Amino acid sequence: MEKTICFDLEGPLSPQDNAYDVMQLIGKEGASIFEVISRYDDIISLEGRNGYEPGDTLALIVPFFLLHGITKEDILRVSERAKTVEGAEYLFEMLQAENWDIYIISTSYEQHAYNIGRKLGISEDNIMCTKLDLERSIQKDVYSVIKKAEEDIIVLYSDLENTERIVNRLNEFFFVQLPSLGFDIFTTKVVGGKRKADAVRAIAKEKGILLSDVIAVGDSITDYKMLNEVAAHGGISVVFNGNEYAVPYANVSLASDDIRVLHIVCNAFAREGKGAVMDIVTNWEDNRAGFEADPGAIPDSEITADIKEFLTGGTLPFPYFHNLERADERRKEEIIAIHKRLRMRVREDAGKLG
């Protein structure tokens, strides 16, 4: 079997939401602006608006970058203080030693995606991410419209649950006012939603493999189409510390403070395929309490020697695995609650974003 794995970046590999942090360079209101636009992104993504994909938030915030003079250098500077998720470096070292082809498919701007990729030893050729043009200038009339929208969005933040007000004002700004002034938001092509699914299909086609030979890893609304695409074609889709938008579309659930335990899934998949993975995560789910009490009792066929040593020695928090293919709606709600708790612990402020 060709060993191929595709990771989302923000969540599975780095806890930082780079664009969220970059917006805070604007000042104390930057986070509020981003959260309102992120909420808007969730709403119109779920309604299936034609031509709009989850994650296009990263196109919608570009006018505010231009308004405040945010540069590519600023984005890289913010990225350089980003951490990787616990265990990511270990996992990538193991996968690379075992000759896995590793790809990153991310909504992140290229400055951030390439920076995290470098930390994990991934070539830019294996990273699909969002290209950003911040060189264009804005005319005075466009400047005024963006400035007024910014003021209105700050007011909208005080009532985030009033989705009708948010949608009405931002529809007007992004889809009426800016286009009427010749400002095209969507010159920024964000790699999210369908574009992530397209990317994983393109990778499989280029390698001459089936999607059933692929593992995909994601956590949020920008990943659900990629997760669904791989799962629907017989591959393994892993949701890692996911939210309610991602969990229902994967077939394997991993909630953990540390992503190195994903190596158990990868090892089983390379050895015996999807069936072995599903058997292992099912047994871990059914026997979690006993396994946590005595990690030494975990069958050697269901764990790697390193991971068993980490768990036995108490140096690794005990993870949650779930078989999502057998989970009914009630069980999925229970699993989502576990994921949200781990998500907030690992991603902190960024965990509340879609």
Please, could you describe this protein's structure?
With 354 residues, the protein is α/β, with parallel strands linked by helices. It has a domain at 192-352: Rossmann fold (3-Layer(aba) Sandwich). The chain is 50% helix and 10% strand. The protein has a 7-stranded mixed β-sheet, with helices on both faces. Strand 2 (101-109), helix 7 and strand 3 form a beta-alpha-beta unit. Helix 8 (140-156) runs antiparallel to helix 9 (163-180). The longest helix is centred in the last third of the chain and has 19 residues, at 329-347. The radius of gyration is 21 Å and the shape is elongated. The mean pLDDT is 95.
Give a brief rundown of this model.
With 354 residues, this protein is α/β, with parallel strands linked by helices.
Shape: elongated
The strand line-up of the biggest sheet is: 3-2-1-4-5-6-7
What percent of residues are in strands? 5-15%
- Backbone structural class: alpha/beta
**H and E order:** EHHHHHHEHEHHHEHEEHHHHEH
Task: Let me know the average pLDDT.
Answer: 95
Radius of gyration equals: 21 Å
CATH architecture of the domain at 192-352: 3-Layer(aba) Sandwich
Number of strands: 7
Helix content: 40-55%
CATH topology of the domain at 192-352: Rossmann fold
CATH class of the domain at 192-352: Alpha Beta
N-to-C span = 34 Å
How many DSSP H or I helices? 16
Low-confidence region ranges? none
Query: How can the largest sheet be summarized?
Result: 7 strands, mixed
Set out the fold topology:
Blueprint: E1 4-7, H1 18-23, H2 30-46, H3 57-60, H4 62-68, H5 72-80, H6 88-97, E2 101-109, H7 110-119, E3 127-130, H8 140-156, H9 163-180, H10 194-207, E4 214-218, H11 224-232, E5 236-240, E6 252-255, H12 262-272, H13 274-286, H14 288-293, H15 305-312, E7 320-323, H16 329-347
Parallel strand pairs: 1-2, 1-4, 2-3, 4-5, 5-6
Antiparallel strand pairs: 6-7
Helix pairs in contact: 2-8, 2-9, 5-7, 8-9, 10-11, 12-13
